[in-house]
């Protein structure tokens, strides 16, 4: 395939794609059928050390360029990403599994961060502070932190890179990224487009390794890495946070979630069903912000369930390259086993399967969209991130009860609720312990708003003007003897 041949360009970090399957290679396979797509080099610690050294050197010259100069190159990168939308979406569907239409949506979403930060970098304003005494001038300015590293997940293999790389580069940082071993081809593809836009290869570097622990330790302990951004599990995030403490490294952590989706009695039920479909089943439920547990007011429970199940039953499951497919495969066999076990456990303690509940009869890598009812809040499935197309539904009676059960989790990333009462909206929105709240909306992610969580869902924000600040230090200048 042409896209594979283009990616095999040995100039990519001076490391070629490899033809076979050796111990020092990473084999990339299609999660739908296990077919091998290609193999890439499994980078050693020595290679990563060299890449970091080159990034540090490149960052000095990059920081000296004006924000406008950096923004011009980022804008070229944005244009090239959009121009390659079809190729990038194809790569994503083949190595990650999400339906082609959804993959195209991610390409646009990922590109939007590059466009946003190409402009936002010009607005890294400082302050002039009124001095407390005559003869002084106080001011602040913002400067890049230096070399930034990132570790990105497989579920959004383009957007999770551009959401970190674009603000880092716009701020004047160098950027070294380890993409997930399941989906590195998307990373190499968007990086190649960045190089074609004129962004130096040493400045935006990729490393890939099966030994994630080794890479994490190297990123956290290396004195030239001044910032680390990680998207992944809370368990790994805590490990990275502990390791980075040795040099007080700046961190951005976007970790696990347990998003509630609430339908109040006064909600527009049809709108709530539409929002639930968008929130729950995007990427086969493999998103950190997707609805993980549903709470529906008792008086509208039956109506919501009936309409919701009718829509869920229409979802087409299969090969993401086939027309009309809306649910593709889960990322690997371990994910399928985990989701199946969670459903079985939920049923053993009282939940009822209304639809789905098992793997696809013909395509074993796909799990059928599933709805569970009669789910008590104590059911284990409500207290763990599902990461699959499973929607457990509970009932609730009062607002106070609802707020308590929604907040009964160590996680606090995204939450959603539907209501048309302004008093309820304000009360619930302010009481929910989550970094993001969708009100009468099922999809809330956008490059112009801050993305991030509270509690054990992480720290820091991505997107918006706050996303640029994550890669900049504030320097205070006190100028005296100005009589």
UniProtKB/TrEMBL annotation:
Entry keyword set: Oxidoreductase
Family annotation (Gene3D superfamilies): Aldehyde Dehydrogenase, Chain A, domain 1, Aldehyde Dehydrogenase, Chain A, domain 2
Pfam families recorded: Aldedh
Aldehyde dehydrogenase domain sequence ranges: 21-476
The keyword Oxidoreductase belongs to this UniProt entry's keyword annotation: yes
Sequence intervals crossing the membrane: none
Active site: 254
InterPro entries, per database record: Ald_DH/histidinol_DH (IPR016161), Ald_DH_C (IPR016163), Ald_DH_CS_CYS (IPR016160), Ald_DH_CS_GLU (IPR029510), Ald_DH_N (IPR016162), Aldehyde_DH_dom (IPR015590), Aldehyde_DH_Superfamily (IPR050740)
PANTHER family named in the record: SUCCINATE-SEMIALDEHYDE DEHYDROGENASE, MITOCHONDRIAL
Protein family membership: Belongs to the aldehyde dehydrogenase family.
Protein's name in the database: NAD-dependent succinate-semialdehyde dehydrogenase
Organism encoding this protein: Corallincola spongiicola
Lineage: Bacteria, Pseudomonadati, Pseudomonadota, Gammaproteobacteria, Alteromonadales
